[in-house]
Amino acid sequence: MAVRDILILPDKRLRLESEPVGKIDSAVRKLVEDMFDTMYEAPGIGLAAIQIGEPRRIVTMDLAKKDEPKQPQVFINPELVGTSGDKNIHEEGCLSIPEYYEEVARPAAVKVRYLDLDGKQREIDADGLLATCIQHEIDHLNGVLFIDHISKLKRDRVIKKFTKAAKLGKPVGNRAADE
Ligand code: K1U
Ligand code: ZN
Predict the structure, then answer these.
(1) Is the distance from the beta carbon of residue 132 to the nearest atom of ligand 1 less than 6 Å?
(2) Residue 149: pLDDT above 50?
(3) Ligand 1: centre distance to CA 30 (Å)
(4) 173 — alpha (psi -120 to 50), left (phi > 0) or beta?
(5) Rounded mean pLDDT of 143-147?
(6) In the 8-state DSSP scheme, what is residue 52?
(7) Is the predicted pLDDT of residue 25 greater than 70, yes or no?
(8) Better-scored residue on pLDDT, 1 or 87
(9) CA distance 95 to 100
(10) What is the chain's alpha carbon radius of gyration, rounded to the nearest angstrom?
(11) Mean pLDDT over residues 7-17, rounded?
């Protein structure tokens, strides 16, 4: 089990464009394992590889509720190949911007093409939380954060708060450290 450190705003690596995965080899499978360990530990419902400092186009996700069995999903080189015209507003959070939540409008339904861990090409039609989460994670692969979809005023305010905290070496949203 390897729980890795999650990059926190304003870490510049969060703005990198991630590279497509070529061969799905043991290094990729180990990275996916680390991503699940890190995501479940956080806890989160999704994670992009860049959030643990690996600029590869890999996303892990598990949208199962607390009382349901785990439903781990892996998306390698995911691409949006279709988006609905209508939008859905959903409250989003981000493990790289702890304890900050804001409503974001995104296409309500999307079609996603990706490779599974066996290298098989697959497509899914997503709506609801899955559509929101996969769009949030694909954004990460392109160096985009959910705060880029909110007002400049709110975005500048949250960036300022996290930049100040980073300079002071004091994590934002770490409840134990706040007490
Ligand atoms: O990519 C990330 O930073 C993970 C993020 C995914 C996400 C959440 C909500 C909307 C869009 C994308 C998170 O997992 S934040 C934590 C979270 O939402 C959560 C954590 C525990 C239980 C339930 C939800
Ligand atoms: Zn995020």
Answers:
(1) yes
(2) yes
(3) 22
(4) left
(5) 99
(6) G
(7) yes
(8) 87
(9) 9
(10) 16
(11) 98
